[in-house]
Amino acid sequence: MLNMIRPVLDRVTTPAGRALARTPITPNAITVIGALGVSAGALALFPAGELFAGTIVCTFFVLADMLDGALARVKGTSGPWGAFLDSTLDRVADASVFGGLMLWFMFGGHSRLLAGVALFCLVSGMLVSYAKARAEGLGYRCDVGIAERSERLLIGLVAAGLSGLGVPYVLAIGLWSLAVLSAVTFGQRVVAVRQASRAGKGGEG
């Protein structure tokens, strides 16, 4: 759903990409720094109960990570390795966010139930991404779903940040909603590939 605002984001990130192109920084370096920053912020601050600070750190590095694609386009260095690295490290960052929240609920004296929900969000998010990657590897398009990576991360971070500011129940509501949306998205992708395979569109011979 957030893909609809991508043209707006491109108008912001492209000038930044041009500025970065005049430096020795590479797109892959930005990708690695972004993933490490999100992971460090989530795993160091969320389990300690610093939800708002953790959200600020994670959001900063998520936004910084958006520049890798803009820089690659400006430099003309887009390629399979960069795409693989970006996609793989995105999974590491996502796992760190929801893993950090799970640890907070486990050891912060809050709720083992919500720790389980955070774990479900982590696993289901991985399944959503895997379903798309596996389908595309077999020759099927699988870009359907109501909650792609950007939506899932947005919901998780906004809920964590508001909870850190003292808004009651918002993190629980956010995680339960995300769990449902992730499960629905996974189901949508499974159904889409099933329908495409029946129709004979793509796939291995």
CATH level-1 class: Mainly Alpha
Quick one: biggest sheet?
none
Distance between the termini: 33 Å
According to CATH, the homologous superfamily is CDP-alcohol phosphotransferase transmembrane (TM) domain
Tally of separate domains: 1
| SS summary, helix count | 8
DSSP strand count: 0
Q: Encode the helix/strand succession as letters.
A: HHHHHHHH
Low-confidence stretches: none
Structural features, described:
This protein is an all-alpha fold. The protein has one domain: CDP-alcohol phosphotransferase transmembrane (TM) domain (Four Helix Bundle (Hemerythrin (Met), subunit A), Up-down Bundle). It is 77% helix and 0% strand. It is built from eight helices and no strands. The chain has helices at 6-20, 27-45, 51-65, 67-75, 80-107, 112-137, 149-164, 170-199. Helix 3 (51-65) runs antiparallel to helix 7 and helix 7 runs antiparallel to helix 8 (170-199). The protein is globular, with a radius of gyration of 18 Å.
Which structural traits does this protein have?
8 helices; 205 residues; mainly alpha; Four Helix Bundle (Hemerythrin (Met), subunit A)
